[in-house]
Amino acid sequence: MEVQVLRREQVSHLPTEVINESKVFLGSHFVRRQPLKGLSDEEERKYLPRILGISPEHPEFERRSQDFWAEMGFLVPSSGVVLDVTKNEDGTPYNLEDWIKYQWALKHKLVAINEQELLRDPRKKFYIRDPQEQDRLKNATIQSMKAADVEFIKATKDPAKARRIIRMMTKTVNPDTLNDAQAENVLYDIKQKDPVTFYKIASDSKLDVKAEIMELVELDVLRKIGNQVIYIDDIIAETFDDAVIWYQNPKNSSIVATLKAKLNEVRKRTN
User: Fold this and answer.
1) Is 204 left (phi over 0), alpha (psi -120 to 50) or beta?
2) Residue 148 contacts residue 195 (beta carbons within 8 Å)
3) Does residue 262 surpass a pLDDT of 90?
């Protein structure tokens, strides 16, 4: 299996052909006054003797391994560097030098594990392209869409649940003002935009409670200041998740009953 180490191309006034022919060096850096290592101590003792030509018991082994990591680095042209990270049947690297470079690059502070991380983090200057990871990411997206589709179909058969999901996932639409067809349309758009979050919320066993608390906040029966959830002048929870726990605690059942009654009153006035 091969992976590529590619660089972030900077905006430059230089001609494209000059940039394409240039090479950028990915060099070592220090972590707690020690050069960055790509291997664990156990892996060092197993693999570095083949590179250094001395055994782990040799008195110079530690110093030579430190020098090895301090001098680690390679030039990255515009087309990237291809590393063979294939494993043999016994699990050992087929191309030891390439495999070590790959393990080292994975830990490097300037190297993103994929292009998505590179785009999110301006501090990263290089990234790894793993064809198998691209397949895994694509399949993960497909599985997310499939799971979200199942929950979407369930929600379309339960208009109340559809509105609860909408309430949890958007602040720009009041689900109580939508007819069933409109609610289904909004739900579909939400699902398409973020299937992972949609599935997480739609399949949440606490959806009913969370949506009810959210509605209490929307109708000002409860107030939310920062992360805190407040009833009248009392802080009932420091976070929304804590509010859910508080709401389900039998010790607070009398207050919760009052909240539900207030919620029904407000619903009647606003409907």
Assistant:
1) beta
2) yes
3) no
How far apart CA 168 and CA 204 sit, in angstroms, is: 11
Within 8 A by CB and 6+ apart from 255, the residues are 231, 236
Are the CB atoms for 24 and 93 separated by under 8 Å? no
Residues in the chain: 271
Between CA 92 and CA 113 the distance in angstroms is 22
Write out the residue range of the structural domain in which residue 258 sits: 205-271
Which amino acid is located at 217 in the chain? Answer: V
| Residue-wise pLDDT tens digits, 37-75 | 999 999 999 999 999 999 999 999 999 999 999 999 999
Helix axes 180-193, 131-156, angle to 10 degrees: 170
| Contact call for residues 56 and 45 (beta carbons, < 8 A) | yes
- In angstroms, the Cα distances linking 9 to 18, 105, 126, 130 are 12, 18, 9, 19
Specify whether 7 is located in the same domain as 64: yes
* Total tally of structural domains belonging to the chain: 3
Bridging pattern class, strands 126-129 and 111-112: parallel
| Cα–Cα nearest to 122, from 263, 238, 10, 235 | 10
